[in-house]
Specification:
With about 375 residues, the chain is α+β, with helices and mostly antiparallel strands. The chain is built from 11 helices and 14 strands. Helix content is about 55%, strand content about 20%. Helix 2 runs antiparallel to helix 7, helix 2 packs antiparallel against helix 10 and helix 7 runs parallel beside helix 10.
Length: about 375
């Protein structure tokens, strides 16, 4: 009779122990698969949300700073040679190697205009991109539908006495207030937000912008690489990353990943302990059986192989069932952890890793029981017959 047949028959006879062994390892592998799949899905969802949540790279004109002092007294500094950015140059952004990591490019032109005999700040934007990128913006009314409409920040609307539907004259050109931007707590509250082409005409800067916000988060490369690539294709501008935002986002993802790995490791160790305890108990229960095998001529290697073969059968089953169960639990739980629509990836590498991990843990935990069984004295074992 072959060893694999003996091992299979032994597992079949001891169904309760088989179930205990299987559950001990299955729970551990299932937990690892669940946390791994959930972490990957949440990271993808978080990356998607963060890429569209706002800008983390700024492109501004290159400016020469000149420090002034006289008689030992500092008079501050002035900016000289500030040049606007040609709008056509921004096409080069989509040619960088990591262009796929750029979620949005939002050009702007900012300046002061005459409004009913006073001065006001306007910001020209691509309204479709700007309002999609700044999801925290909330408008009473609607965003501009054409170049003759604008959205007024809440502070600007209060200062100018504006409300939705009013008409306002900028530089002699009439605009309709299509909406009021609710309070953001930033400088946006004091701006009149105008479609980019209209603002360029009002400020005499057709085809030019003076600020570009880029929303990008690279999961497989540093954002600094994107900054360097943008600097290469736009040599006459200053490209800078908002480091605090980037580092906070990446740190949050790293912490979640580390926590998941720690929990998974603890559960796997508990599963290994359960297998070790069960296999040791099995060896003690089968003292007479092993003694008979040794008396019939089984070598120590045969006994070790018999115990490990049982562990391999159980580990293979636990690996496959753990992967299926883990992915199933992830699919059920994932929608409860996020308001978005996370995408669950059925990664073949994770399935292979689950089975491999089950085999490593199961056989490792069974090594000592296997060697203990091989050292049983057949004479002592047969005395109980």
């Amino acid at each position: 009779m072959k060893l694999r047949t003996i091992a299979f028959n032994n597992l079949r006879r001891r169904k309760s122990r088989l179930v205990f062994l299987l559950l001990g390892l299955l729970i551990g592998i299932g937990t690892v698969v669940t946390l791994s799949a959930m972490t990957s899905a949440l990271q993808m969802e978080a990356q998607h949300q963060m890429e569209t949540f706002g800008a983390n790279i700024l492109i501004t004109p290159q400016v020469d700073e000149l420090a002034l002092s006289y008689g030992g007294v500092s008079l501050g500094g002035v900016s000289v040679n500030a040049q606007d950015i040609p709008e056509q140059d921004l096409k080069a952004i989509r040619t960088i190697p990591n262009s796929r990591n750029i979620a949005a490019v939002a050009p702007k032109v900012i300046g002061a205009v005459e409004v009913n005999g006073s001065r006001a700040m306007i910001m020209g934007v691509d309204q479709d991109i700007e309002f999609a990128m700044k999801k925290w913006w909330s408008v009473e009314g609607r965003i501009p539908a054409n170049e003759k409409e604008l959205v007024a920040g809440v502070a600007a609307a209060a200062a100018l006495g504006l409300k939705e539907g009013d008409t306002i004259v900028l530089q002699g050109q009439p605009f309709t207030v299509s909406g009021i931007l609710r309070e953001t707590g930033s400088q946006d509250d004091g701006l009149l937000i105008v479609p980019l082409p209209a603002a360029q005409r009002l400020l005499g800067k057709e085809g030019k912008v003076n600020l570009v916000e880029v929303a990008a988060l690279c999961a497989d490369c540093p954002v600094e690489d994107i900054v360097g690539q943008l600097s290469d294709v736009l040599p006459d501008v200053k490209v800078s990353a908002i480091q605090q935002v980037i580092r906070t986002r990446m740190h949050a993802l790293d912490q979640f990943r580390t926590f998941s790995m720690g929990v998974a490791g603890i559960v796997v160790l508990l599963g290994a302990l359960a297998i070790f305890t069960s296999m040791m108990g099995s060896v003690k229960e089968r003292t007479r059986e092993i003694g008979i095998f040794r008396a019939l001529g089984f070598r120590r290697s045969h006994v070790i192989g018999l115990v490990l073969l049982e562990a391999v059968w159980v580990s293979l089953a636990a690996g496959v069932l753990g992967w299926i169960g883990g992915m199933g639990i992830t699919r059920l739980v994932l929608p409860l952890l996020t308001e978005g629509h996370p995408h669950l990836v059925w990664n073949p590498a994770l399935a292979f890793g689950a089975v491999l991990l089950a085999l490593v843990v199961g056989t490792s935990a069974s090594l000592y029981p296997a060697f203990a069984a091989s050292r049983l004295d057949p004479t002592e074992a047969l005395r109980s017959l």
